[in-house]
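Title: Prediction job returns without error message
Component: structure pipeline
Severity: low
Priority: P3
Assignee: unassigned

Description:
Job completed but the reporter wants confirmation the result is attached to the right record. Sequence as submitted:
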Amino acid sequence: MGRSSSATKANMEESPHIIELYDHLRPSLQAYLSSRGLSKEHSEDVIQEAFLRLVRHNVEQGSGENPRAWVFRVAHNLSVDYHRFERRRSRGNETEARPLLREQVDPAPDPEEKIILGERTRQFRKAVAQLTPKQRHCLLLRAKGMCYREIAHELGVSVQRVGELMQRAISLIETGVVRR
């Protein structure tokens, strides 16, 4: 038990060093990964994964002699893995493809996104409620996949009138959703 507590203490002492290393290397890693064809978002994912692996490596095996080189090597390998994954995915072999990161990000919206989504939904419903019954019906039929000609036949109006109703409905909804 003494060994694990001393390892934990050593890791806690090294945390500021890793944070400093992250702050120092992040721009260089971002530029390097960008030169390897990764987008800014994917580069950020790779950088975070590389540093996560550095922390795990330090916990399991102790800190290495050259953490800068170690992080760049891991980031390079992750970028290679990412490009392999993308090639496999583009060929349609998703069953063979391995994800880039060990842990997958939860696709569910975070609390802030839920609040924003709820507010947008409320605003959208309010805007739709302000439409005339014909505009609402027209919008609903279009949302169900009907073309303007089918909607015109269903509502007993011209195709041009359907276009006018749709244009007005969309305009009212956009202004209703944008208005705060």
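Comment from assignee: result matches the submitted record. The helical segments are 2-35, 40-61, 67-90, 111-129, 133-143, 148-155, 159-178.
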